User: Fold this.
Amino acid sequence: MGDRPSVSVAIVGSGGAGTLTAGSLLLEAAAEAGWQGLLTRTVGPQIRGGEAAALVRLATHTVECQPDQFDLLIGIDWLNAHRFGAEIEVGPQSFVISDPRGGDLPPNVAAAGARIVEMPFKNMAKAIPEGRANMIALGLACRLLGLGVDVVSTLIEKRLADKGQAAIGASLAGIKAGYDAASNLDFGLRLAAPKSKSTRRWLISGNEAAALGAVRGGVRFAAAYPITPATEILEWLAPNLSKMGGVLLQAEDELAAINMIIGASFGGTPALTATSGPGLALMIEALGLATAAEIPVVVIDVMRGGPSTGIPTKSEQADLNIAIYGFHGDAPHLVLAPQSVGDCLFTTQWATYLAEAQQTPSIVLSDQFIGQTRAAIARPADVAFIGQRLKVTNIADAYNRYALVANSISPMAIPGTRGGQYTADGLTHTEQGTPTSSASDHQIQLSKRCDKIENFNYGDHWATIEGAGDFAVITWGSLTGAVREAISRAAQDGVEASLLAPRLLSPTQPKRFAAALAGKKRILIVEQSHSAQFHRYLRAHYDLPDNVQVLNRPGPLPIRAGEIHRAIMEWRS
Amino acid sequence: MSIVDMRVAGKPGDYKSNIKPIWCPGCGDYHVLMSFTRAFAELGLPPEQIVVVSGIGCSSRIPAYTNCYGFHGVHGRSLAVAAGLKLSRPDLTVVVASGDGDGYSIGGNHFLHACRRNIDMTYVVMDNRVYGMTKGQPSPTTEPDFDTALSPGGTGLRPFHPLVIALASGANFIARCFSGEPNETASVLVEAIKHPGFSFVEILSPCVTFRPDEVEWKSRVHPAPVAPTNDPGKAARRIMTDDGFNIGILYRGDRKPYQPAIGQPSVDPAELEKEFEL
Assistant:
């Protein structure tokens, strides 16, 4: 068998066994050596003693989703692995390396027909002073995939520099033991040589990319209330906002966090918070205030399984309804969704720019999958979207904060500006900002706030549109990568399908959508929500052809490219 | 920029807007507004450098009646708005206005954390021991036997003690005023605004419509018999044991306000991506 363009490895163990460390080092070593790839973490709710798996997919080309089945599954132990169920699928072509002392294989693994090889990780680790089984697993994976031990050794020396020579020595010995133990295993899992290393590449998670995008878009204030799986955004911003002359403030709850950023933005500073579904629910009232008082803010919702506490550590696309429709009253605002780890940067930067330009809140719907996945990717292109709010500086006569102007975006007076004093208000107000309960003032200001975002020119960034033909797959957010891969497999089978993935979910873009669907006769909609929220959203706002099928499922089980591929093939036949 | 640098000659009227208050005739809040404008004039601050932030309720309507920048937000969250504003704009003078329902009930958690955080701002709570805007329900400071439609026969609950809570939570300046004494109140507000850190001023402000009995407060209030202390232990004993009508500055702490450095970047923005480069 020739070398493979893409290989996937899952490393499974109890929480605290170091599977995520091993996976992370594997990805980083491969990335240093020139490959692309991604690492998705899947963990239980426990901090220690639960279950953890590192899912690593490496390739010679860009990959944006996990595989249908893992080529290699390494079980340091299987103590809680049954909790993953079908999340880590293996098949007859897969290889499983298992410690016979690590407990019974999960039933789905045992029944998969994969080739199973025993490897006494625990005993091998014991033979090394301070040795750890995860390093042995890492050495094993490197050998099987054709990664030189030197790359990973250099990395270990760098990563563990502050832990001392003993820790480095133990890790290197573990890696060597695993590497040697794999010498007589030939699974044909060697990766093909990476393509040119000349392009600049990054190793970054979606949450980090979103945070960087926010700062590039101009955010200089953040308020933070920790929540899984959004916390890394806030943790990245804390030191980096400070370097930018900004500040992050830890709030007492999400109600405070959203109001803090509204206060900062009222003072003229572009501001952001990041949360997940439960936090977004708490923020909704104040987001209505930001809409009414026309104060730009950015809220990143890294979606997880819901409702209520749901499945905090795992992905779902089920906050679409609350993000678009959750506000009370008629409150037009922006909702955007990034489509890959790298796109978290662009979409968040654009969301910041749009919020500032339109003086309105924007919600970025990321999710646990792209938020916490770490990927080796080509450096995202620089874009010119930097938040520029229309402000007044010289006020000679009376100032009307909510003046009716041509594009409905009224110049904003920032505190400190002489003559611009006004009271920002959640009460229905006049052009001057004075509270009113008159029907005409209400109508006028509702229309103004609607018009300013409806009439804005969003350009081509509103959606990803690829391919041709009369068959289209429509999806959104983090599923875009899996759909793209499915479409490319269908093309290999001679079936043409196009991709439509709106990045801008609100306001809707009926003309652009209709143009994108011109000539399409059949539609497949793919989304990760139990009630098919995205399908209902499309039905509510857009005209669809008669032939529509929906592939939807709640989290946490990912919708895999293979399933989408099958759905495309069946729908065509 | 310090307060002194920006002094402008001003009269109280310069800090008043032309919007007619919605308050009932005789409401204590009219006098609070008068105290605000007198204090601002006394401080000589340019009106555009002051922001009055509020939540929801009768007292929270006050920002628009001043000629300062104002923020009339959602119910109970004024301290959070003010925290974000002041940290990102330390040059501004931030005064937060609230009532006993907005500040102690729906906004209670933010009150604790604002005291603890000790950001340089002044928090004024106009306490009339009733929800006025929703027509007469008991608030956290209402007496246990106050009979209302929502609490027939009274709540039977002990009132909340805001000054003690402020002290325990770390407020750096604590005072009690009576709306019927606008000059004295204005002087306390001047001190509160000048004092570094989180200053908490409770203003007893009668609701003539739903608590006509509170008109009697004018005969019950009296100046605090002893000078303010910076000893929280002493202050706690005084506040815990007084009759609730001691007027004046009760505590002046010396905790350092919370204000992280902001302003100029220390690195080029392009540097931030370096950690991600392979």
Observations:
- The first helix of chain A runs from residue 19 to 32.
- Chain A is about 35% helix and 20% strand.
